[in-house]
UniProtKB/TrEMBL annotation:
Naturally occurring in which organism (per UniProt): freshwater metagenome
Similarity section: Belongs to the FGGY kinase family.
UniProt KW Disulfide bond keyword: yes
Any one GO CC term of the record: cytosol
Signal sequence bounds: none
Domain Carbohydrate kinase FGGY N-terminal residue range list: 9-247
Protein name: Unannotated protein
Length: 474
């Protein structure tokens, strides 16, 4: 590699989005975060939804800034790829227009799950799709939409990053890593589990064709190209569209002996492995199988992550800036004061999924599980969150090793949670393993690396990963 090659990563998170310009040079990878924006849900007819039009507008603002910055350096954008959280989707007509608002996963209906189980049992669904049963899963949301008549007009279901890709290029598809979060992808074939879809009563016509991670979706539409100020249409890739898959792609190949913790709004702890683990043991242990960028399997347990801390801080701040409160409470929680907690809670508990009164929810769970009726102070609550996350990381990584037969020699911690020093220290203490922290923007690094491989800059993802590691991306 003798020159600079630039790509743009659009990383949509459940609380914020960012657009990153990544430039690969002979010295490694340089990142420029050109735009960051809040992701604030809206309420439509009493239902919590994503503000897709506002988010897409912010996306275009960010990509335009990336184009301008690359141009000012004498270069150009050679690719765009979008990643996001899983499960949520838009229903679009043939022209790509939404036929209904995009519902937020926190507005899922738990009552749909037992209805679905009448047609496909929990055990059978897991043995085929490898996905842990949760009310937020796409399969249950689509059953809900079928019963509500929203699929009668024959729309196409596009998962969030695929929806963005369609709006950028006009091309419909379902990238495999994000499709694997739906509870409808057959882990053995890598395609939709058509028989399960039909038994759920979901029209097969709603599902777009599966596409490989790193495949080309097309180029930006003329109106989009003009809006971005680009000199010519920009290639758009379906990278590892699930943000977890992009994050894992920046860290390790299957079998490297590394336990991985990706800690953002959601935390996922586990490992990468060559084949899915679809056993009863894995299901009862709460592990989900998701596709990786290289057709590997990400065996992970879903936890609530920094969501617990951020929700508590938001409530305590009462509309005031959260950052000063966060800093002071983390400092205080790191200093021993003799007030030992009686135990920890499960950050993956279903009662912690919804928003609202998070300190109260945590306190009730603590009293129930630890038998301690004390009134938790703010510092106690922060300590409890951090300790509970560290212990759940330890348990999840150890279980992932047992289920896959791997012996881990270190843990790599990535995402925003890797920047919380007390959490990293606790994880190191509890696991007894070295903890290597990756870049906070590991998802963007993985996104960019996959584009670089797809466009021929590197022959393999491993080569792109080595280039990124030569850089100071902390």
């Amino acid at each position: 590699m003798t020159d600079s090659r630039s790509f743009t990563a659009v990383d949509l998170g459940a609380q914020s989005g960012r657009v990153v310009l990544g430039t690969f040079t002979p010295d490694g990878l340089a990142l420029d975060e050109v735009h960051r924006f809040a992701n604030e849900p809206i309420t439509v007819s009493g239902t919590l939804c994503w503000d897709t039009s506002g988010l897409f507008e912010q996306t275009l603002i960010g990509i335009a800034r990336a184009c301008s910055l690359a141009g000012s350096r004498g270069g150009r954008i050679e690719g765009i790829s979008v990643d996001s959280w899983g499960v949520d989707y838009g229903l679009v007509d043939a022209g790509g227009s939404l036929v209904s608002p995009v519902r937020h996963y926190r507005a899922s209906d738990p009552a749909i799950v037992p209805i679905a189980n009448e047609h496909v049992s929990t055990a059978e669904a897991y043995s085929r799709t490898g996905i842990t049963e949760m009310a937020i899963n796409t399969c249950f949301q689509l059953i809900r939409d079928t019963r509500a008549g929203l699929l009668d007009s024959g729309p196409t279901m596009l998962l969030t990053p695929d929806l963005w890709t369609a709006w950028l290029t006009g091309s419909f598809g379902a990238e495999r890593t994000i499709a694997s979060t739906t509870g409808l992808l057959d882990q053995q074939t890598g395609d939709w589990a058509h028989d399960l879809v039909e038994r759920y009563g979901i029209p097969l016509s709603v599902l777009p064709a599966i596409a490989d991670a790193g495949s080309a979706a097309g180029v930006t539409l003329p109106a989009i190209t003009e809006r971005l100020g680009a000199p010519s249409p920009i290639p758009v890739y379906r990278g590892a569209s699930h943000d977890t898959a992009s994050a894992f792609a920046s860290v390790a190949d299957p079998g490297e002996g590394i336990g991985v913790i990706s800690c953002g709004t959601w935390a996922l702890a586990g490992c990468s492995t060559t084949t899915p683990v679809l056993t009863v043991d894995a299901r009862t242990a709460g592990f989900t199988n998701e596709q990786g960028a290289d057709r590997s399997t990400l065996l992970v347990r879903n936890l609530s992550g920094t969501w617990l801390l951020e929700e508590c801080l938001r409530e305590w701040a009462g509309g005031q800036p959260v950052a000063p409160l966060r800093a002071s409470l983390l400092d205080a929680a790191s200093a021993p004061d003799g007030h030992e907690l009686a135990g920890t809670i499960d950050p993956g508990d279903a009662s912690l999924i919804e928003a609202g009164n998070m300190p109260g929810r945590i306190a009730r769970l603590y009293r129930r599980d630890c038998g301690d009726d004390r009134e938790l102070s703010r510092i106690d609550t922060v300590r409890l969150i951090l300790a509970s996350l560290a212990h759940s990381f330890d348990h999840s990584v150890r279980e992932a090793g047992r289920l896959t037969g791997q012996s881990f020699t270190e843990i790599c911690m990535i995402g925003g949670g890797s920047q919380i020093a007390p959490l990293v220290d606790l994880t190191r203490q509890v696991t007894g393993l070295p903890v290597r922290t990756g870049p906070a923007e590991a998802t963007s690094v993985g996104n960019l690396s996959i584009q670089a491989v797809a466009s021929g800059v590197f022959a393999t993802l491993g080569e792109a990963r080595l280039a990124a590691r030569r850089s100071d991306l902390s």
